[in-house]
Amino acid sequence: MMEDDDVPQLVEADDAAPVVDEETAQQEIEEKKAKAVPVTILTGYLGAGKTTLLNYILTENHGLKIAVILNEFGEGSAVEKSMSIGQDGAMYEEWLELRNGCLCCSVKDVGVKAIENMMKKKGLFDYVVLETTGLADPGPIASMFWLDDALCSDVKLDGIVTVIDSKYGLKQLGEERSDGSLNEAVRQVALADRIVLNKVDLAKSQELAELKASIQAINSTALIVETNYSKVDLSFVLGIDAYDADERLEDLKAQAVTSTPHLDSSVRTVTIALPGCVDEEEAERWIQDLLWEQQLDDKPCGAEVLRMKGVLSIRGSDNRHILQAVRELYDKTETTEWGDAERVNRLVFIGRNLPEEDLRASFAKLVSSE
């Protein structure tokens, strides 16, 4: 047995071990990403119509094999009763295969165990829908799928879909918390990539117009569909690639416009566009100061950024750099060439107390024509 102070013996490298060049390694990574199972996070207040949407996914003959992870069941759920029962009478978590080929799973935790169970069935489905509790903030859940290096080769975040009750949505968005924090409805809208405005037949036209105005004031980048009984084209909620670094994010000008708060939440969308180039390290520090310290130019700015995305023109690089952020977590990916197109830094912020002019002036200090 070796003593603590003994020097470990060196082991010679195996000359026969294969050497993978950088290009081959990158190609293998891209191939794994292409095979990754897309995960859609479904959120919304209780009663908004999430269960109705899930029932549609689980029962319609749409030709897709979709796994649905339910992280909370109600009492007496028919699906829950059909789950397997152990020898001691206790229910255990297991996948349930439905008639249209979809799968359903009940879990109390959307963490590692749920993901492990999901990956065991990876070859059996095309998409995964993860339903959150009505009061859940989708931000931490999205970050878990989006940035966890240990999982990125098997699953990828496809997008966040929020279901809103047309009759009560305006009231839910306007609810105030005693501690001054944002309520869950506002957070769910702010982080959404797609919004299903459900039960439109129960709302008056003026109520519906005010609700849509409030949603767009909070998040002008999310696409909205109006429906009853949560009936939507599945392409609206699945396969949207909201977090992929592709051309979908390269022209944010048409996707987002600066808005003014429609409710007391003071959450809104701010867009800035500045032609020119920025130094990569300086841009990284600027992003970190804003997201982590809520600072601009080393001074507190009070901005609470919930979602951020954009395109950066990095000095010395011929390619666009796509930026994505959820709360304090962010990712930057090099993508297509600028070519003859005008090089414009375009950033979209969704959050509370966003100082538009200060954001623009501060970032402008990083931009040069070179």
Automatic annotation (TrEMBL):
InterPro entries on file: CobW-likC_sf, CobW-like_C, CobW/HypB/UreG_nucleotide-bd, P-loop_NTPase, Zinc-reg_GTPase_activator
GO molecular function annotation: GTP binding; hydrolase activity
One GO CC annotation: cytoplasm
Ranges where the record places region Disordered: 1-22
Keywords, alphabetical: Chaperone, GTP-binding, Hydrolase, Nucleotide-binding, Zinc
Pfam families reported in the protein's UniProt record: cobW, CobW_C
Entry-linked SMART domains: CobW_C
Organism domain of life: Eukaryota
Catalytic activity: GTP + H2O = GDP + phosphate + H(+)
PANTHER family the UniProt entry points to: COBW-RELATED, ZINC-REGULATED GTPASE METALLOPROTEIN ACTIVATOR 1A-RELATED
Name under which the protein is recorded: COBW domain-containing protein 6
Family: Belongs to the SIMIBI class G3E GTPase family. ZNG1 subfamily.
Boundaries of every CobW C-terminal domain copy: 267-367
Originating organism: Salpingoeca rosetta (strain ATCC 50818 / BSB-021)
